[in-house]
Specification:
This protein has helices at 2-30, 93-121, 138-141, 161-172, 201-204, 233-237, 256-264, 309-315, 323-349, 361-374, 376-394, 402-415, 421-452, and strands at residues 35-49, 57-71, 123-126, 149-153, 156-157, 178-183, 189-194, 225-228, 244-248, 251-252, 271-277, 280-286, 289-291, 298-300, 303-305, 316-319. The protein is α+β, with helices and mostly antiparallel strands. Among the domains are: 123-219 and 308-319, Roll (Pdz3 Domain); 225-306, PDZ domain (Pdz3 Domain), CATH 2.30.42.10. Strands 5-4-6-7 form a 4-stranded antiparallel β-sheet. The chain has a 4-stranded antiparallel β-sheet with strand order 10-9-11-12. The longest helix has 32 residues, at 421-452. It is elongated. The two termini are 18 Å apart. InterPro entries: PDZ, PDZ_6, PDZ_sf, Pept_M50_Zn, Peptidase_M50. Its EC number is 3.4.24.-.
């Protein structure tokens, strides 16, 4: 398991860094700039080669957390007179900006390519089918009934639960009303209006659907145990696969939803489960463990319902498009994700969104492993998302990032001359300090999630 997660993380990270640095490399070559070194990773060099007439060194470092392209530059060492035209610092400001921006753009192009492949080959996702909305929620007030399948949000067509979640999040960042077009379980067209959606961004930062009362439809599943997580409360209590739950604290259980509800509301309190194991009735005592963060903390046994083929068919759909439609949707998905990422970053800076949304290498490695286990389409979608995040992050106007260099070049274009070495040095120090602070937040959030469950 650990090998899968580590391998999926390193493969994703290596691909993202490689594509980013290749963007810089090819842009430099297009502009006639000599590249001295192309490196993936930092620290001790594990492998290197110097092919071609320029003798560019291609190297792989011990620590795969990044990479760089080193170009001929008078600021970093003496340059022969014959090669001065190929020095980076001798290039017009427009060419330097093109070389710098090519890295983040390469990441965005990679995301488009990956989404195109996913949309064209198809991916199995949950249907956008709604369950019973909580009483008093906007969905309940709008009259939404269980079993309705949403087809469009504010006129934008959707095909899956993920589409619904994404489109609602996108719309509620600007609008205060939603129009949901859908069909009932009998195939009758319906339209619902959710008005006056005035809630804080903090309520929707983790799940934009729950505050609206838009819950996923779940078919009735028998209370039969499937997978059991190692070292979980269920494992400690002695649960086994195929145990059928009959009662909890003497109360009859009719479906898996009853089990989930009882466990969710019983953190730290012993529950007595009466189960049927191969025809034998027995009692097992388990104490639900704490899971989640702050107000969202609930009880968890570390147990999953036994898969039901008919339920899977009822809840899922294969989302697939023609090559042309897939390309259009890939570009739109990449653009929307980049814009929302920028908005989220901005709202974290203003305090409208919690800094708990920041994730570091530990969380990314976890998601890499999870998506790799689900299948290639999910893993490629994950890489596309991280590639967009990397591209957007690098375009921020922070010194030491690509966006910081673009900021310098803009100032140089306005002034008509480069910024002083002192200003650049101060900028570097500020940039490193900001990045260090960002990484501290990310690692803190990673370990907080890890140890809080």
């Amino acid at each position: 398991m650990i090998a899968l997660y580590a391998g999926a993380f390193l493969l994703a990270l290596g691909l993202l860094v490689l594509v980013h640095e290749l963007g810089h490399y090819f842009a430099a070559r297009m502009c006639g700039v000599k590249v001295l070194r192309f490196a993936i990773g930092f620290g001790r060099v594990m492998w290197s080669r110097r092919p071609g007439s320029d003798q560019t060194e291609w190297a792989i470092g011990l620590l795969p957390l990044g990479g760089y392209v080193k170009m001929l530059d008078e600021r970093e060492g003496p340059v022969a007179a014959s090669e001065l035209p190929r020095a980076f610092n001798r290039q017009p400001v427009g060419r330097r900006a093109f070389i710098v921006v090519a890295g983040p753009v390469a990441n965005l192009l990679l995301a488009i390519l990956l989404y195109w492949l996913v949309f064209m080959t198809g991916i199995t996702e949950l249907k956008p089918r709604l369950g019973v909305p909580p009483q008093g929620s906007p969905a309940a007030v709008a009259g939404i009934e269980a079993g309705v399948t949403v087809r469009a949000v504010n006129g934008k067509s959707i095909a899956s639960w993920q589409d619904l979640r994404w489109e609602v999040m996108r719309q509620t960042m600007n609008a205060v009303a939603l129009e949901l077009d859908g069909t009932t379980s009998q195939g009758i067209p319906v339209v619902y209006h959710l008005n006056n959606l005035r809630f804080s961004l903090a309520e929707t930062e983790k799940d934009p659907l729950t505050p609206l009362g838009l819950l996923l439809y779940r078919p009735r599943l028998p209370a039969i145990v499937g997978q059991i997580m190692p070292s979980s409360a269920a494992a400690i209590a002695g649960f086994q696969a195929d145990d059928r739950m009959l009662e909890i604290d003497g109360k009859t259980i009719s479906e898996w939803a009853d089990v989930a509800a009882a466990v969710r509301n019983s953190v730290g309190r012993p529950l007595v489960f009466t189960v049927d194991r191969a025809g034998q009735r027995m009692n097992l005592t388990a104490i639900p463990q704490l899971s989640g963060e702050s107000e969202a903390r609930v009880g968890r046994l570390g147990i999953a319902v036994k898969e039901d083929a008919s339920a899977v068919t009822e809840m899922t759909t294969l989302v697939r498009y023609s090559p042309g439609e897939a390309a259009i949707r890939a570009v739109a998905k990449t653009w929307d994700t980049a814009i929302i990422s920028l908005r989220m970053m901005g709202r974290m800076l203003t305090g409208e969104l919690s800094w708990k949304n920041l994730s570091g290498p530990v969380t990314i490695a976890d998601y890499a492993g999870q998506t790799a286990r689900l299948g290639l389409s999910y893993y490629l979608s994950f890489i596309a998302l991280i590639s967009i995040s990397l591209g957007v992050l690098n375009l921020l106007p922070v010194p030491v990032l690509d966006g910081g260099h673009l900021m310098y070049y803009l100032a140089e274009f306005i002034k008509g001359k480069p910024l002083s070495d002192r200003v650049l040095a101060i900028g570097q120090q500020v940039g490193f300090a900001l990045l260090a602070l960002l990484m501290l937040f990310a690692f803190y959030n990673d370990f907080n999630r890890l140890f809080s469950g």
